[in-house]
Design a protein that fits this description.
The protein is an alpha+beta fold and 200 residues long. The protein has a single domain, classed as Aminopeptidase (3-Layer(aba) Sandwich). 30% of the residues lie in helices and 30% in strands. Strand 4, helix 3 and strand 5 form a beta-alpha-beta unit. The protein is globular. It starts with a strand and ends in an 11-residue tail after the last helix. The relative contact order is 0.18.
Length: 200
């Protein structure tokens, strides 16, 4: 049975098995060097202080992960969150990415965030199609903003409104407080219905 849960720094090794090829063999990630297990575990720990970082497990396999993070550091941006999702190559096209996004969105809404943003290195028609099918709309392109694998790379940006634009808004609630909500586990399970049960 698939399960969606909060990530732990102990998941770093399995996550890096998914992430390493995207650094070393693609331009999906703009990183040049694969972080160590300790460095990646530190990233997970840092994100979880404020934002959700989720993993989808299937039996003994980490099938995918997704997380939110700050869009910019200035205070006025605090209601906007950048999303990222990565899926194990053996679990592609099984609904894992959608499931993780649905659970991620439910938690972020409960925390009080209002806008989801996603950056995609272009061209990447599969990721573009996925995000637009999920409800993201394109807002612009940073042209030739990064250089990797002997070429300049452009990054497109997509956005999705996930909450009402109250004026003035209340500050988002840190994840450490949100997990105490009795409904939190329902948020975690929100995406499970999107997973195709024949995934493995």
């Amino acid at each position: 049975m698939p399960k969606i849960r909060l990530a732990s720094p102990h998941d770093a090794t399995n996550m890096l098995q998914i992430y390493r090829p995207l650094i070393e063999n693609s331009v999906i990630s703009f990183e040049f060097s694969t972080p160590t297990i300790e460095q990646f575990a530190g990233r997970i720990d840092t994100v979880l202080k404020r934002y959700p970082w989720l993993v989808c497990t299937w039996q003994d396999t980490l099938a995918g992960y997704a997380y939110g993070g700050p869009h910019r550091r200035r205070e006025a941006y605090q209601w906007s969150v950048e999303w990222s999702v990565y899926v194990h190559e053996g679990f592609q096209r099984k609904g894992i990415a959608r499931a993780l996004y649905q659970s991620l969105e439910a938690i972020l809404i409960r925390q009080g965030f209002r806008n989801a943003l996603a950056g995609i290195t272009l061209p990447n028609p599969a990721s573009v199609a996925f995000h637009e099918a999920y409800g993201f709309t394109p807002v612009g392109v940073y042209r030739d903003v990064g250089f990797k694998q002997d070429a300049w790379r452009s990054v497109g940006w997509w956005e999705k409104r996930i909450g009402p634009q109250h004026k003035p808004p209340t500050d988002p609630v840190p994840l450490s407080e949100t997990v105490k909500d009795p409904e939190f586990h329902k948020d975690l399970d929100q995406g499970l219905s999107s997973i195709k049960r024949g995934a493995k």
